[in-house]
Write a structure and sequence with these properties.
116 residues, alpha/beta, 2,3-Dihydroxybiphenyl 1,2-Dioxygenase, domain 1, four-stranded mixed beta sheet, 2 helices, globular
Length: 116
Amino acid sequence: MIKKSIPQLPSLNLLRSKDFYEKNLGFKTLKQYDDIILLEKDGFELHLWLCDDPSIPQNSSVYYHVDSIDLLYADYDKKGIVHKNAHLMDKPWGMREFYVLDLDGNLLKFGQSIDA
């Protein structure tokens, strides 16, 4: 029986990624090793693993279901990290979404149900 899912995203430089996730996205580091960093935000865990192939993060993504998407968007937009082609908008599949690219090209999608 599945009890929990933890996304794992590739990172070309773990220390640089850790800094980005902590300063810009509000994550806290739980544990750090030579080849993986375990992060947490709002009870949600994320792992960043060391990778040396730039094409992998450029083809990786994670989708976050969030509350108060307008506030989150305002915070991330003020920090200048919202993807230039993916500002906050209502999608035909019933979600209000925006996207962020991390420093290695991982696509971070944030969405809230329009009904919420």
